[in-house]
Amino acid sequence: MCIRDSLSFEFGWIEVETDDDGQWEIHRIANDMIPLIYGSARHNDYVNSPLIFTSRDRMLTKELETGNHRFILAPALSLSGIVTDEHDIPIPNAEIIYGRLRSGDHLTTESDLEGRFFLSGCHPGSELLTANAGHFAPKTITVEVEPKSQEIRVSLERGRRAIIRVLDSHDDPISGAKVRYNNHDSVDPIDPLTMSWGDPYPPVQVDFQQSTDREGLITWFDAPNQALVFAVSAEGFTASEFNQFKPDDKEHEIILQPALVVTGTAVSYTHLTLPTIYSV
């Protein structure tokens, strides 16, 4: 439960561009928000600067207020490669993703008619690279980016069907349940590194979400042939976050339990009901 005043200075995100001298200014942040903000700088030809948090560094607040803070961007590297099928036939228009989708600083491009791609703005070192094309299973590999990196070859294969049926505790299908693939690195609270099957592959960096039909079913065609984790939620039910299996063209059932309903009233020390309440 969170109680808020009617006046708030919270905001989601503000972006500005630097001028010819690399200077930037923001005039829209209230003083009360300064200790709570974080940020970074990015440019296509450079590696993104590290995130800074004013809550972790008191000197940082002074530097921002006086205009003395400097974001340092390191020169970026480039990466090139080719996407093919299992018979070494080039795949055009494949989506290429460099980095983790939820990192906020991933790079994207597409392969050309010959299956080749080029990415600039890459940081040196180890990173994830994903190729995704229609009628193929998406694939994520780990690449090492160096000043003279060799061409990357990504071979895509036909995938398997991931079939999920969502049921309630009475084995009745739940229509309209949201099924979402979890592409985080650490997803299994028991064994986050091996995903319970010992798979050496990183989670594939793609977004997949579907709502179940009247029979409580969803199907992911051409899903990766490796351990996958799905989160399932539906109105009136408790969400199920960690559902793991390998796509095998067989149906996998996920049962949701009824949600616990909690009600109450918030009062002040004078026993007056508070008007501005957000209840969970």
Question: Helices and strands, in N-to-C order?
Answer: EEEEHEEEEEEEEEEEEEEEE
User: Compute the gyration radius: what is it?
Assistant: 24 Å
Largest sheet: 4 strands, antiparallel
Helix content: under 10%
What is the tally of beta strands?
20
Number of helices: 1
- Approximately how much beta-strand content do the residues carry? 25-35%
Overall shape: flat
Side by side, the strands of the main sheet go: 8-7-10-11
Structural class: mainly beta
Low-confidence stretches: 1-6, 186-199
Whole-Å distance between the termini? 6 Å
Mean pLDDT: 85
Task: Describe the structure in your own words.
Helices cover 3% and strands 33% of the residues. It has a 4-stranded antiparallel β-sheet with strand order 8-7-10-11, with no helix packed on it. Strands 15-14-17-18 form a 4-stranded antiparallel β-sheet, with no helix packed on it. By secondary structure, it is mainly β. The protein is flat.
How are the secondary structure elements laid out?
Layout: E1 2-3, E2 38-39, E3 46-47, E4 52-53, H1 58-66, E5 74-75, E6 77-84, E7 95-98, E8 107-110, E9 116-122, E10 125-132, E11 139-145, E12 152-155, E13 160-167, E14 178-181, E15 209-211, E16 217-223, E17 228-233, E18 240-245, E19 251-255, E20 277-278
Short recap of the structure:
This protein is mainly β. It has 1 helix and 20 strands.
Task: Kindly list the characteristics that best describe this protein.
mainly beta, 280 residues
